[in-house]
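Continuing the series of single-chain predictions for the mutant panel. This is the parent chain; the variants come on the following pages.
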Amino acid sequence: MKKIASVILALLLVLSSAAFAENESVTLHFVRIGNDEAERAYWQWAIEEFEALHPDIHIEYDEKAIGEAMDTALNTLFASGGGTDIIGHGILSVAQRVEAGQYRAIDEYFESWEGKDDLMEAVLANGTYDGHVYGLGYSVTPYVFAYRKDLLEEAGLDVPTTWEELADAARELTVTGDDGEVEFAGFCYPQTGGNLVELDVFVLGNGGYYIEDDQPVFEDNAEVKEALEFLRDLLPDVNLTYSSSEVNPFVSGNAAMTLINNAALTTMFNNPEYTDKIGIALPPNNGTPASFCGCNMLFIGTTCAHPDEAFEFISFVLSPESTLKRAEMVKIPVTLNSLVEQYAEMDAWNGARSLCVSYGTGMPRVTWSTSFQAVRNALSQSVLFGGADVDQALRDAQSDIEFRIGN
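Parent structure:
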């Protein structure tokens, strides 16, 4: 009888342990790039809503400032062997951290996700690398073509949609002083800055790019050359010199048209002085509708012990309800096709914002993306503001990028 009682007791212990394990809660560590207040408020809402629906899953939230702070935090976490479960990071991180073995491929989750066909194709491309899906976009920052409605109307001009129309309108709206110097820019374009994506908008709008078969192509790149020549011939007549790290002259009321990060226009749209005077559209192009669009995505770390639960959180964040809530709270465009019409009803210019996202391309997803950024910046500066010969500058850019990649 004692033996039977011992066996029964052992069985009860096993069953109770299994029941406890089944109901044991899971904690997921989530670190995202950025420390802005609006995003923080959204994530607090999202986590509370998710945990209410999934009381057995707890999200441990952390955030790091854009740039070195985020990358240092991730490097430290993975170097320690612990890593992190969910990561909110940008395009530039994709290739480097996939190759470093830090981002998990999520193809199997993506294929069974009910929202996979709703995510904008351009947004999905940002998190795809070497044929696999690693990240899914939750936050997009499109570059838009901003213009002064009032000035165009006064001059009897339509909103430019082509390069030729842009050049004509820019020259018409530029104001110069007695010395011939530009005092009010018809179209403004940065001379210097950390990431001169404005050139990318023109290259993309000319049906071109800088990469072919994952290899850099600057030399003899006809589309890049044509974009540079167009800008080189236009900017001296219509531009005010500034850095992309400074306030855009358009925002300070000193330009009629520009290319600008959508978020940077918030102050103007909120300023009563510019009520009904500001408009945005897809950038003028030379045959190919296009823009630049940054994107932050959600990734699952390779050290994550609970990838099922991690993707459950990601799918919640990317659901239509949560995506629309984020658009309302953070004032950013939606990433789902099914929400474009509803998003457009929220603001008169949201249709244009969505268009810039759907036609948007981000930074190259290559391990040498930071080198590309430096070389492209130097190319823009040397041709557009330094008087360099275009063909020679393209040859120099090719040599520079190949040297950087090789070293």
